[in-house]
Write a structure and sequence with these properties.
The chain is of the alpha/beta class and 318 residues long. It has a single domain, classed as Rossmann fold, CATH 3.40.50. It is 44% helix and 19% strand. Strands 6-5-2-7-8-10-9 form a 7-stranded mixed beta sheet. Strand 5, helix 5 and strand 6 form a beta-alpha-beta unit. Helix 1 packs across helix 3 and helix 3 packs parallel to helix 4. The radius of gyration is 20 Å and the shape is globular. The two termini are 34 Å apart. The chain binds S-adenosylmethionine (SAM). S-adenosylmethionine binds next to strand 5 and helix 6.
Length: 318
């Protein structure tokens, strides 16, 4: 009889390491080389962020796997017609990691490499970034990608009308730098299809603004908050308005909230996941919650070390 050695469960560190390996393009694809050979490699047009951005992208990439696996299986049974990734704040496709020489894959490219989407739709307001994102996506996943150069708040309605039906299932990634989203407008997507999961970067700038409002009532500050969250009321908190919006207006009663830390316990923003109620229940979100705890227990500094190890500039600390 052949004895099988039971596989040991991966540690949290190993799970994060695996994700960063994909994001650093050291897992399987050699996308960075391909882009470089086509004069589409790292450039100063790319956004540059601290290494904690790897925690955000790991959280996204982990969910891309869970989401597409379930969506494709439902599609095969005739439940959905199309599986779509909408990147509301798309960037250029690559992200430079601050204070390092490294560039990694951004959200739209990670979604393209996942292989499970019928279409990737990315919005980017900056012309140069939108242009290079379009070229990079079309090199990697021809004919399945669309980049809209414009303000997502203004453009989403038109795109939803043309591309989304009540049978489209969407992963909606909302990754602004600050409070640029206007949820009263982004809601047009949810009005068209209820099958939308939302993964959002929730800026801590919201708390700074709330602090100012509590200290010093000012109409421009309140207008700013209400442009972001139209349900925000004076005397309430933005967190309450966000939760109320996701639960009632968006119909996304379940989810998780994960802090993204740069150094020690310093939180830069949080990632908010909100999902629909499904016939099969919400058990599928359990691994995501487990992974969220891992993400919340590491910082940008840890990611920096992992990235250097992956790139071969530091001995493994595994
Ligand atoms: C945090 S970055 C996105 C990074 C990207 N998700 C990635 O992983 O590579 C935010 C991007 O949103 C763009 N942006 C800002 N306001 C926007 C708007 N109203 N509509 C569309 N894009 C916008 C910025 O130019 C910037 O490139």
């Amino acid at each position: 009889m052949v004895e099988t050695i039971p596989k040991e469960k991966k540690t949290g560190y190993e799970k994060l390491y695996d994700q960063i390996k994909i994001i650093a393009d050291k897992a399987r694809h050699d996308i960075l080389d391909t882009l470089e050979h086509n004069s589409l490699g790292a450039s100063n047009i790319d956004n540059e962020y601290g290494a904690h951005t790897l925690l955000k992208l790991s959280y996204l990439n982990y969910y891309l796997g869970i989401f597409t696996r379930i969506a494709i299986s439902h599609k095969k049974k005739g439940g959905f017609s199309k599986v779509v990734f909408i990147d509301a704040f798309g960037g250029s496709g690559l992200v430079g990691i601050k204070n390092t020489k490294y560039t990694v894959l951004g959200s739209s490219l990670l979604a393209a490499l996942n292989g499970g989407f019928d279409k990737i739709i990315s919005f980017e307001v900056d012309k140069e970034r939108a242009n290079i994102l379009s070229k990079r996506l079309n090199l990697i996943l021809p004919e399945k990608c669309q980049v809209i150069n414009g303000d997502v708040n203004e453009e989403i309605g038109r795109i939803v009308d043309n591309e989304i039906t009540s049978k489209t299932i969407v992963l909606f990634f909302v990754d602004p730098e600050g409070m640029e989203p206007q949820f009263s407008k982004l809601r047009k997507l949810i009005d068209k299809t209820q099958y939308v999961d939302i993964l959002m970067n929730y800026t801590w700038g919201v708390y700074r603004l709330q602090g100012r409002i509590e200290k010093n009532f000012s109409m421009p500050d309140i207008n700013r908050m209400q442009s972001f969250l139209d349900g925000y009321k004076l005397g309430g908190t933005p967190d309450e308005a966000l939760l109320e919006m996701f639960e009632t207006k968006f119909g996304k009663p379940f989810g998780d909230n994960v802090p993204i830390k740069s150094k020690g316990e310093k939180t830069e923003y949080s990632m908010v996941l909100r999902i629909r109620r499904t016939q099969g229940g919400t058990k599928f979100i359990d691994p995501m919650k487990e992974f969220g705890k891992i993400i919340g227990s590491y910082s940008g500094e840890d990611c920096n070390n992992i990235l250097r190890t992956i790139k071969g500039d530091q001995q493994s600390i595994l």
